[in-house]
Amino acid sequence: MKEKIYEIEKEIENTVLNNAKQLEEFRIKYLGSKGKIKDLFSFLKEAPKEEKREIGQLMNMLRKSAQSKFDDSTEKLNFAQETEHKIDLSRPADQNEIGARHPLSLVRSEIIEIFNRIGFTVSEGPEIEDDWHNFSALNFPPEHPARDMQDTFFIEKGENEIALRTHTSSVQVRVMENDKPPIRTISPGRVYRNEAISARAHCFFHQVEGLYIDKNVSFADLKQTLLYFAKELFGEKAKIRLRPSYFPFTEPSAEVDVSCTICNSKGCNVCKYTGWLEILGCGMVDPNVLEASNIDSKIYTGFAFGMGVERIAQLKYKVNDLRLYSENDVRFLKQFTAGN
Ligand code: DAH
C-alpha cells in the first residue's frame, strides 16, 4: 500500500500544470470524489492494523500536497491570464523625449548674456503695477493716450489705479527707487496690452528694458552700447542707425534700426526694401524721471532702452506670426536650439 502511495506521489510530482485543461484533468484524477486519492482512502481499512496509523498519515500528506500543487498552479495561471493582455514584453521601450527650450526663452537668455558681459545686472518687477510705476513716474502726462482703456488692462480704476504693466519701463522706476547710482541693469519680463490678437499683435508679449545711470553718461555711450549689442546678436557685420523719436521718459529719444540680416541690406520683403529693421526704442533718461525717483539730475545722467523679445526672435528665427509663440504647439517649439 505504501508503494502505491509513493507511486502516486511521483506521478503528481511529474505532472505539468500549464493550462486550465491540465488543471481540470488533475483535479478529477487526484482530488475528485472518484479520484485516485479518494480511492486509496477506501483501501485504508484493509491495511494491517500496526501500519494503519502511518499509512493514514502518508495519505493525508499526499492529499495535502496534491491540493497545494493544484492551488498554486491555479493562482499562477490566473495571474498570467490577467497580465497577458496588459504587458507586451516584446514591445520596444518608449523613448524619453528630450524637451526643447522655448524660442523666446532662448532669445531672452542670449540678450541677458550679451549685456552681462558689459556689466549689466538683471532686475525684475511685478506684472501687476500701479499707475505711479507704469506711467506717472515715467513722465506720462495725465491725459496721455497710452493710459487709455484701449491699451491698458486695468484691474482697479480710480485714485489708486492698478493695471497689468504695459511695458518693462516700470522696473526702471523700481530700480531707481531702491538703488543708488551707478545703476547698470536690464529687466526682462512679460507685458500686457489690450490689443486684438493677430499675426502682428498680441495681448501679451515680452520686453527687455535697459537702464544705465551714472555721472557723465552720454548719448555716445548709448549708441556704442547698442552697436555692441547688435553686433553680438546679429554678427560682426551688423550696423545700426538711430532715428529721432518721442517717448515721455527719454529726451532726446530715438528708434534704432539694425541692418537687415535677411538680405544683407540689399532690400527684401522683411525690411520692406529699406535694408533696415526696427529693433528698439531708446533715449537719455528725462531729468523729470530721475527726479521722480529721487536721483539728482544735476549730478547724474543716464540712458534707457527697451526692446521686444518677440521682435528679435522674429528676426533671428524668421517666424513672423506672433501667435505661434504662445500656442504651445510642440511641433513648432521643438525646432529651436541656441545659436540657430
Ligand atoms: N517702453 C517702451 C515701449 O514699451 C520702449 C522703450 C522706449 C523703453 C524707449 C525705453 C526707452 O527705456 O528709452 O514701447
Order of helices and strands: HHHHHEEHEEHEEHEEEHEHH
How many distinct beta strands?
Answer: 10
Instruction: Please give the count of helices.
Output: 11
The assigned CATH architecture of the largest domain is 2-Layer Sandwich
Please write the CATH class name of the largest domain.
Answer: Alpha Beta
Gap from first CA to last CA:
88 Å
**Percent of residues in helical segments?**
25-40%
Derived from helix and strand composition plus strand pairing, the structural class reads: alpha+beta
Number of domains: 2
Bound molecules: 3,4-dihydroxyphenylalanine
Order of neighbouring strands in the sheet with most strands: 1-5-6-10-9-8-7
Largest sheet geometry: 7 strands, mixed
> At the third CATH level, what is the topology name of the largest domain?
BirA Bifunctional Protein, domain 2
How much is the radius of gyration in Å? Answer: 41 Å
Shape: rod-shaped
Low-confidence parts lasting 5 or more residues at pLDDT below 50?
Answer: none
Strand % is 15-25%
Mean pLDDT, nearest integer? 92
Relevant CATH superfamily of the largest domain: Bira Bifunctional Protein, Domain 2
